[in-house]
Amino acid sequence: MTMTLSRWLWIGGFLLLIGFLYLTKGILLPFVIGLAIAYLMDPVADRLEAMKVPRGIGAAIVIAVFFLAVIGILLAFWPLLQSQLANMSEKLPATLANFRPWLNGMLADLSDRFGFAVPTDVEGVLSGVSADILAKVRDSAVKLVSGGIAFFNIMGMVLISPVVAYYLLRDWDLIVARIDSWLPRHVAPDVREQAAKIDQVLAGFVRGQVSVSLSMGVIFAIGWALVGLDYALVLGLLGGILGIIPFVGAFLTALVAFVLAIGQWGFDPLHLALVAGVFVFGQIMEGSFLTPRFVGDRVGLHPVWVLFAVFAGGEVMGFVGVLVALPLAAAIAVLVRYAIERYLDHYELHPVAVNEEPSPAALETISEDDREPPVTP
């Protein structure tokens, strides 16, 4: 098999895989969760295997302990969480009522300034918007239930994800070895080197960001509970879940907290400042301690690239795309850096550090007319 044919086979196989994943995106969630759990727990299974525990038994122990711990935490907090959710559903209309004076004034100002025929009563706006929202929710629910996707995802996360996680964790080393045996010999060293870097980046994100998001959820829950904000546990859970998405998750959690704070206390500067103080404290802890401790600089993604990856993943594949966007962006960043390094090495374009004299080879490429005379002090 020629090198060109082998390359096109790899490219074609990759494109087919991308197309297959896109077509099956509606049922990917339990498999993505199982894959993430297997990747997260692989070091623990490796340690058990080093202690002479058979891989299958070790994988079963790890997966069982993991899911039992998750279920135990949910059962421990479920009564309080259920109580806060019930209270939130009962008090939400009264909470939104605190926004009526502000919204009425804003709508009246827009109507006077721009001449728009907007209703000056909030109830009129909310009734029209709520009717549209309910219609869309009803249509979406009918489509999901009729297609079986919602039922499959719910049952999949409960039943299929542990099974997928177990089999992947049991055969993880075999799968990696099999893929490694498929690599062409002339590119195998480079592929292994980049795969090791991608593994380092993904480990830094998956294991590190999970720890950061859980810590942020605890900080938000405890901080807002001490401030006296209602539904602090719900907000902490929301912050822990959304914290998987850097920047965006914490901002959305804080936005919901501010809305609830205004509904609870109105526009009281002291209470709003306390709610904002908890958010600022959490951000300081994340930036100065949590992220350097758990994630470090292994991911190395620019904030703009992070935001673009999150929104692009959500646009292409919905919630599953949001989950896989950042790990995929981190892997792409490693490959892009490798391509740039190869390009610079090929054309011998090595950037000169600041305050560093150019090398003789670089000086030879500069014409006599372009050289500037040295500046004497």
Describe this structure in words.
The protein is mainly alpha-helical and 377 residues long. It folds into two domains: 148 residues, no CATH class; 161 residues. The chain is 81% helix and 0% strand. Helix 8 runs antiparallel to helix 11 and helix 10 packs antiparallel against helix 11. The relative contact order is 0.08. About 5% of the residues have low confidence.
Task: Tell me the total number of β-strands.
Answer: 0
- Helix and strand string, N-terminal first? HHHHHHHHHHHHH
Q: How many strands, what sense, and barrel or not for the largest sheet?
A: none
Low-confidence stretches: 125-131, 144-150, 366-371
Radius of gyration (Å): 27 Å
Helix content estimate: over 70%
Number of helices: 13
Whole-number count of domains? 2
Give the N-to-C terminal Cα separation.
65 Å
Indicate the overall shape: globular
Hey, roughly how much beta strand do the residues contain? Answer: under 5%
Structural category: mainly alpha
- Mean pLDDT across every amino acid position: 75
Quickly list its features:
377 residues, 0% strand
